[in-house]
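Reply to dn_fold:

You asked what the input looked like. This is it:
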Amino acid sequence: MMLINNKRKNIRALAETLRYSLYVITHPLDGFWDLTHENRGSVGAANIIIAMALLTQLFKLQYTSFLFIKIIWEHVNVAQIILSFLAPIFIGCLANWGLTTLFDGKGSMKQIYMAVGYALTPYVLIQFPMIFISNLMTAEEGAFYSYSITFSLIWCGILIVSAVMMIHDYSLSKAILMLVATIVGIMLIVFVLLLFFSLVSDAVAYFVSLYKEIVFRFY
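and this is what came back:
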């Protein structure tokens, strides 16, 4: 009985932190401050929002009207789409944490991740309904679709800037500067990872060929 009560309590707490995302997107400065400093948010809620954003991206490719998105699924690698969506989030959190640690940032990796998750809320709230609305629209009404998608991205961008300001206690100019540096950091991390995997691949290929040569000569 106690176990059931604890589960219900945890579910209610998760639902409360998930519902708090609606406050964050309409009151970003106060919202992100309370999110991290008053423990109003949770990693679980951030995970759910990120998962919903990923599903929105996949559904958008599948179900958006062909007037606005033309895609041939036979040529699409779903794993690559998932990776291209999630990798920038995790690498961006890592890059931002590393850079802000060097420049008096007060946020932890956990807080940065939560903030990014909550900042994606408008992406889900706007773009998911637009998937189905797009199928009721004509080509002449495409401007409304484009404006809605653009608005959701701008809203997410404003939330991310607000999150960096509140989490790290930065000014607006410093927050924007850190975000630009974070983008550069993401590119550097991706470059290093690609270089590393390329070297590993070459090394594996070398040892495999060496092994085959030895086997061929002695056996």
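Residues 122 and 155 are 7 Å apart (CA to CA).
Hope that clears it up.
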